[in-house]
Amino acid sequence: MMMRRLNLLFAAQYFFYQAYTQSIGGVNNATSLDMNLNNYGFITELKPERLAKVTGNSYYYEQWLQGNIRIDNGIEIKDKPVRFNMRDNILEVKDGNRVVGIEGRRVAYFLLHLPDGSNGEFYQSSEYNFGGTRLYGFLNFIVRGDWSLVSHEFIEEVKSAYIPSLDAGHNEVSLVKKKRMLLLKNKELTEITKNKKDFIAKFPDPVADYIKSEKLNLKETADLITLVNFLNSTPALGSGTP
To answer: I need a surface site. Which of 36, 125, 126, 132 has the fewest CB within 10 A?
Structure first.
């Protein structure tokens, strides 16, 4: 009798796993993508408390964009509709009438053909050092060189007051997109802070003088591109990491 109950429990858990996997578009095999992708992830059982109402968008670009993906084992997926779920760190790939999910931690690089006609290049952020830690997700390369300009977008969850044991309050989560701009040199990331004075102090005088003379606004991407181009064109001035 006990063995029969265990078998029934196992069967129920297996059915839940299969149903939930299919409901999210599947972190399943991707044989029709003409590659040997195994399960790059796991499914965890939902907690019994009431699910939170989620507002906001967790995608880097909500629309599907054509792109290429390179997995960390060297496998490449080319010319497929792709979108990146920043909250779950999942790259979703359209394959016919289904969607395959690939864990971001297994992706070394992906490229998107953006609506403005340019290409967005995104690299695994865990490959770079950020003050002794690693960032979650991907870095978008804006300028490449000895000094590079990159952006890192992520999702911040703002939760309302809720007590699960009493089912009291409002179980709501708001997804807020955040973006930080960073300089990259020798695999070291430095955030471009909002405090202009503190940021300028990290550089030698000629760089600080250039920022002031050109009246560069460190909140504007175009001005940051100008700064990075200056650093790359004057190696003696930008030879160190701020």
So the answer is: 132
